[in-house]
Amino acid sequence: MPILVETDRRSDSMRGLHIGSAERDIIALGIAIAAIIMFVGTGGTVLPQVVRSMTGAGGAADTVLTNALLLNIALIIFGWRRYRQLCAEIEQRKEAEERARTLAETDSLTGCFNRRTLSDKTERLLAQSAQRGEAVVLMMIDLDNFKQINDYNGHRTGDEVLLACARRITTALPQNAVLSRLGGDEFACAFPVNAEGRDFVERVATATIQAICQPVVVNGSTITVSASMGIAQHGLPGAVDDGGWEAKTLLHMADIAMYHAKKQGKNGHSWFERPMEDELRYRKDLEEGIRRGIVQGEFVPFYEQQIDLATGELTGFEMLARWKSPDMGLVSPDVFIPIAEDIGAIGDLSEAVIGKALEDARSWDPKLTLAVNISPIQLRDPWFAQKILKLLVKANFPPERFEIEITESCLHENMAAVRSLMASLRNQGIRVTLDDFGTGYSSVGQLQDLPFDRIKIDRTFVADLTMSKEASTIVRAIAMLGKGLGLPVAAEGIETADVLDELRRFENMKGQGYFYGRPEPAETVRTKLAAQGLLPGVAAAKTGAPEAPEMPSRLAGNG
Ligand code: C2E
Ligand code: CA
Ligand code: CA
Questions:
Q1: I need a surface site. Which of 12, 287, 318, 418 has the fewest CB within 10 A?
Q2: How far, rounded to the nearest angstrom, does the alpha carbon of residue 375 sit from its chain's CA centroid?
Q3: pLDDT over 80 at 547, yes or no
């Protein structure tokens, strides 16, 4: 614990200062006391002489003794003043030392202890509770949506929210709890409980989370925040104990449990259990693998055909990323995209795979478009439009053939940012599709407000189209809405001919789905395109077309 050592060193040097000042203190006091003794000695002889001389009863007082007396008086005054000065100095030093210790131990924003002090105090609690036969509970608390609060309301408001949370947590915790802010929006607290403590801890956990959830009003805006909590407990019957208990272990366990609480839907608490650790290890391996995979080019584009439902013609492809992991084989984006988002790697991953897709798509027939999916996290990047333009320029790919799909749910995050981003993208000639439409509850107002080029009906409605009356009503309503707003509509997830037949009743609709084939790697797409004469520069007859299945778009054309 390097920082603890630092604190010790600091107090050592302070101690050195104290000894120095105490020595000087004693000398000054010694001088004053010696002067007083001498004063009593000389004063005893001189003062009667002085009195006698003043009353005319005797001769003049002895000059040497009188001077000695005056010197004594001067020394007493000097010694006493010096003593007072040193006392004041010591007082100041004590205060400075106290201040330095507070600074070293606490978080300046919230006044809670910091991470190192928490470990220190938890160690002490563990030692004390072992003697008393008690248990120690460690709770890790992480705010769920703090990044958005900071991004959209500014850091000042973020600080106010943190301060309010710290106060609320303090009130919900037992009096003897040690609360610390570990950094950012993460708090941890430790407190002792007796052997029947689990119910008590449950109550504290619930009360803490509820307290945090109460709206905070900052500068007139009401902000709501929630928190996830992980709990680890040492020393209770039935609790896992593999020896070697220390604060670090408890903190690690509470952290794992907190991560579990997040995964369970946030705004709640979880107790640490052993299997969670394996899960976390698996997750860490994935994170490592993703970071390495980006550098080593393991993320590759697959392509799903997009068809004009009326004519059955192939209009282009949607690029869907795949991870060719050396350990796990072909990994689905549903697994790696959320993790890449969490670890801040989504931008790099996306750019790498879009770069490859543009290289692939450049050789396709110029009438074919390329659509890519963009994570809501990327939309927050102020340089996003420039990054896309750079990729297009590098691949020499016409922006008019390029489409970006953004998912409906991200419209709620920040309309202003999405609007300005869409404006820059569209200025470059790039088209923007609203993906997964119907799942994100966007309003007609938002649709009118944002210049989308197309809306894509979510596959859950399309899949149920022929089976569920509700789904078919929703699909019809979206088609009508598109028509009303002059927005072309696409349908994803077309799996059967029946669904396709239903959809073909609507005008001007594009579609895609397993009915036309699964997403395929670049090479397969090239082979098929070449067979159809859609790969300029490659003659259809010379390709391995007979081995490749027919482009399913023909199926659409036929029926
Ligand atoms: P999405 O944008 O809704 O993509 C369509 C997903 O539906 C794809 O899953 C596709 O394989 C699947 N699909 C296509 N036809 C059918 C069908 O007929 N039935 C069913 N049940 N599913 C069908 P995939 O490839 O696993 O991608 C999942 C999601 O991952 C995508 O959903 C997209 O949101 C995301 N994603 C994929 N690539 C990227 C990427 O490069 N960046 C980002 N940010 N997200 C990506
Ligand atoms: Ca999509
Ligand atoms: Ca979709």
A1: 12
A2: 16
A3: no
